[in-house]
Every structure is written in C-alpha cells, then in structure tokens.
Amino acid sequence: MKKILVAEDDITTTRLYQMHFRRGQLEGFFFDQGKPAIERAAEINPDLAVLDYELPDLQGIEVMRALHAVPGCQDTPVIFVTGRAKPSLIEELKAAGAVEVVGKPFSPLQLIKRIKELLA
Questions:
Q1: Reduced to 3 DSSP states, what percent helix, strand and coil does the chain have, rounded to the nearest 5?
Q2: Quick one: CA torsion of 2, 49, 40, 69, rounded to 10 degrees?
C-alpha cells in the first residue's frame, strides 16, 4: 500500500482525506502541523506528501524543503492544497519543487486520481 504523508490543520479536510484514502487503498499519515510531519518523515518514508500551504507552525513550502532534506525523502513528490492557489503562488511552489498545486475547494476524487497517476 502506498504511503501518503499529509500535513493539514483543517479537521474537515483531514477527515475527507481519510475517507478517500481508505477507498483508494492509500495509507495516510496525518499531521495538523508541519514540524511533527517532518520529524516522522524518515520513519514513514512516504511515497508522496500532500501539504497545506498554511499550517499553524510553518508554511507548507518550509515543510516541503525540510522534507526533501530528510534522508530517503529527497525525491518525495509533493502536492500542495491551498485556498490561495493564485498563479504567482502556483509558479513559486512548482519552482520550489511541488509537482502539483490544487486549489480549495477541490474534488477529492480528482485529487486521488492525480495521486495515483503520480505514484504509478
């Protein structure tokens, strides 16, 4: 089963992920802040990460950079999900290494489809 590291502080969005990950046969590891996600990344060794851009403790871009510095996680694909998906931010996140930026509100089914495409 593919492992997905998720850093998302909105409980409703997290529950949505949990439900759709189960249906999509993806194993999710959920964190409501960035630092704990980074601290556990080496142990989890995720196949992909889904990050909120704005977390209580760190910006998502900081989480991505720290994740990519963790041994074994340097090439982990990162998808950002954000309510601030403006062209300039999308460009900045992709230039920093994100493979996808999804705006909120989003279709969970489309997100799962994209995750599976990236993991194929």
A1: 45, 25, 30
A2: 120
Model-level pTM? 0.95
* CA-based nearest residue to 34, from 60, 11, 15: 60
Which residues are paired to 2 by β-bridges? 26
CA distance 66 to 19: 28
Contact 79, 48 (CB under 8 A): yes
Residue 46 in tokens = 């995720």
| Spacing of C-alpha 67 from chain mean position | 11
Pairing of strands 100-103, 48-52: unpaired
Helix 87-96 with 60-69: angle, nearest 10 deg: 10
Find the mean pLDDT for residues 38-64: 96
CB 34 within 8 A of CB 60: yes
pLDDT per position as a tens digit, 94-120: 999 999 999 988 888 899 999 999 999
Cβ atoms of 108 and 16 within 8 Å: the answer is: yes
Q: 100-103 and 2-7: which strand pairing? A: unpaired
